[in-house]
Each structure stands twice: as structure tokens, then as C-alpha cells.
Amino acid sequence: AVVSTQSTGFALGLKLFVDKHTFKQFVVSLSVFVISCPVGIVVGMAVVQNFTDVTLTKVVFVLKALATGTFIQVTFLEIVAPEFSHRHINQLYKMAMLTFGLIFISLVMYSIHDMPSTDFCKNFLPKPLDHSVGL
Q1: Which contacts of 118-125 are long-range, i.e. CB under 8 A and separated by 24 or more positions?
Q2: How wide is the angle at C-alpha 35 spanned by C-alphas 112 and 83, nearest 5°?
Q3: CA quadruple 43, 46, 7, 97: dihedral positive or negative?
Q4: Cβ distance 42 to 34 under 8 Å?
Q5: DSSP 20
Q6: In whole angstroms, what is the distance from residue 96 CA to residue 76 CA?
Q7: Whole-model pTM?
């Protein structure tokens, strides 16, 4: 998540700079981005505390699907596509670097996936409250 947020922040800053936005637009856009990250964490914590295991699984599935779709749309339509429209750098070189990056990230994710500490649901989310205790 941290790498994704850093990449997104860098891409946003670069896009705002390349499009020659005013300093005020630059600051407002980046401020909204920076504020939205902690807000997302708070919303996630609220979701975890207020749903049962089955509902929580469904909510997490939907939110991950939305996040993945947004990431794919921004990556391929907003960032990668304009890069391939410029002819000043060899297109084959660009495709090779894109392929290398995808393979590299896939290998990193595969190696992280095998680590037991990365199981999001077991290690990060708090355990559901047992309301029967103390009755």
C-alpha cells in the first residue's frame, strides 16, 4: 500500500507539473490527495468495527475491486497511454521497460505473498468483538 501511495503521489505531482498548473492548483490537489489517505484508513477502521465476518469479507472484496479498477484505469489510460503517444523515444524500448516493470513487481508481490505476516485479514484487522463475554 505504501509503494502504491508513493507511486500515485509521484504520478500526480508529475502530471500537475507537466500540465503547468498554477501553484495554488498544485497545492490544493496534493492536499486533497494527502488528506484522503488517512480518511481512507478511518473509513476502513469503521468498516472493520461495524460488520460481521461474512459482511466484512464482502465489503473488503468490493472495496478492493474498486481500488484495483481505479488503479488499472489511472495506470494504463492516464499514465502509460500518453507515454506511448510520443515518438521521440523508441517504442520497443518503452514496451521492454513496461514489461520489465510488470515482471519485477509481480515477482516482488509473489515473494511477499509467501510471507506469513502479509495475511491482511489475520494480522492487520482487529478480531471481531465477542459480545457474549461478561454476560
Answers
A1: 121/60, 125/48, 125/56
A2: 65
A3: negative
A4: no
A5: T
A6: 15
A7: 0.45
